[in-house]
Amino acid sequence: MVPFSDSDPTELSSAPTSDAVGPYSRPIKPIQRSKLTQAPADIRSFFSSTTAGKPSGNSLHRDNSKLNRKRAIPPLTQLTLDISNRPTTQTCEACGMPYVIGVEEDQVIHAKHHRRVVGGIEWVSEETERVIWRDELKKEWIVKVPLDSKKSSKMTKKVKQILEMVNVSLSARELSAEQLNDSALYLYLGENDQSLNSKKRRRGGESYEGKKAGMVMVKAVCVAARIDKAYKMVEEHGDQNKEVIKFGEDGSAVFCSRVSQKALIGIHRIWTSPTSRGTGLAHQLMDAVTRTLIYNFPIVTTQDRRALVAFSQPTESGMKFARKWCKSTCFNLF
User: pTM score, two decimals?
Assistant: First the structure.
């Protein structure tokens, strides 16, 4: 029996005395207070450590690596899941330009193009232009502007702006400098319609200031050039005996005969403002082109139009117009 003092309980943690009773007595180890106050989980871990084998160094390394991976996880990012049925690519009803929703670059280009098409591009007359047709009221007229880059012109920037707008509207590539030098630009001009003018409009999610009444605006555009040959469209391309040329992509491809024929006028671009479509402006513009592009050689009959005028990979709406203007389902391509 080991004598305990009746003194204060804190003496339990004091060191034992040297005069212990009994021959087999051993020094009493001091009882640590922390041992008495530990949670039961520590006791279970104590007994489990005496019965279970010691963990290997590899398992400890794996546990530490798991902890390190958990600590290295970056903070979460808030994402948005769009489960709507609307397509990612939309075509603006006002300006006709297709663009991808949510792509900042596409939205910036669309906003710029939308302002030009819906708001209109103003035209200021200059000496280099040539008026080739004017209506009786003198409110609408057609001018011919040379595109030769060697000739300096105050309207070079304006012409570039117009061509850029037309290319975007038709999803067409830019014409090369050589092609432009050999071409002429025809513009259908007219005074701004007061009924379409307003202090401020909002179409297609884009706000812009309305143009002042009386300004001369570009309503239709045509880029035409002299050519030497063209290829006649064919309706059937499934006949293996026929050799054909494919123009355009698979979805909108057209097929022409491999045998070329003589042609004189090639239409690179034909475009009408959305607010002026269905009013015959493109038809009037084409008539002016075929009458005046070649000096002293007007092309006026339907037969000559089919034989001597060709179009450059027209869009779906362009093909409808070409068929209507040529009065034939098959026309020439170049």
Answer: 0.66
